[in-house]
Amino acid sequence: MDVNPQHLQDKARQFQENMVPQLEEARRNLEDLNTRVVSFVRANPGTCLLGAVAVGFIVGRIASRR
Amino acid sequence: MTTFQSNPGSNGGQQAQGEQGQAGFGHRVDRIGSDAQQLWDDARGAVTDLNASLDLKGRVERNPYMMLAAAFGVGYVLGGGLFTRTTARVIRLGVRLAALPMVKDELLGMAEAAMRGVEVGARGMNDMTGAGGGGASGGGSERQ
User: Fold this and answer.
1) Checking CA distances to B120, which of A37, B6, B66, B104 falls within 20 to 30 Å?
2) Residue of B50, B55, B72, B87 to mutate when probing chain A, most A C-beta within 10 A
3) CA of A49 to nearest chain B CA: how many angstroms apart?
4) What's the CA gap between A29 and B69, in Å, rounded?
5) Given an 8 Å threshold on Cβ–Cβ distance, is B67 in contact with A59?
6) Rounded distance, CA A63 to CA B126, Å?
7) Which residues of chain B have a CB within 8 Å of the CB of A63?
8) How many domains does chain A have?
9) What is the interface pTM, i.e. ipTM, of the complex?
């Protein structure tokens, strides 16, 4: 199998150049989502805790039926 | 209420008895009212104390995700999911993940020792074969 190292290197660099901006954007989106979720939880602690308890209850119910 | 109202046609003794009964009833109503007020105050105080001791708001402020996970766990236990196969699987996965750093260190140590052994072996082969061992030496350097 003929493998050209230069070609592989170019391909890898191109892949990296394509992927880095997307990764950066994904990271920024995740950070933004995290900030929004944290601020929502801090603004409505009772609602979020009750919701988490309800979701846990449902999951526990489903797990106990299996 | 109408039971204790005085009848205009009755005599004075009955009227006095009715007034006394009305006063007793009123006193009892007052006592029930004050007891209910006391109970309400106690309940409010207990809730306030519990809120202050749990400090849910402060805890959510400090660790929002941790508190959500704890609430989820409470709900999961209340839902009857504690003694199930899913819980066993999750616990097993958690133990494995917790043990991963230790195992990783062990594996890295073993890999380093193996690489060192391969390097020493290649050097020995190179010494034994003389000039013909150039390829082995090159292979060893490539591995590094």
Assistant:
1) B104
2) B72
3) 6
4) 23
5) no
6) 62
7) 76, 79, 81, 84, 86-87
8) 1
9) 0.78
**% of residues, chain B, pLDDT over 70:** 78
Would you tell me how many other CB atoms lie within 10 Å of the CB of residue B70? 16
How big is the A-B interface in CB pairs under 8 Å? 84
Q: Which residues of A touch B (CB under 8 A)?
A: 37-38, 41-42, 45-46, 48-50, 52-64, 66
Mean per-residue pLDDT of chain B: 81
Q: Write the pLDDT tens digit of every residue in B94-131.
A: 999 988 888 888 888 899 999 889 888 888 888 887 65
Model's pTM, two decimal places? 0.58
A-chain residues near B86 (CB < 8 A)? 63, 66
Closest to B54 (Cα-Cα) out of B38, B67, B69: B67
**Contact of B89 with B99, CB cutoff 8 Å:** no
Domain that holds residue A49: 5-65
**Residue in A15, A41, A48 with CA at minimum distance from that of residue B75:** A48
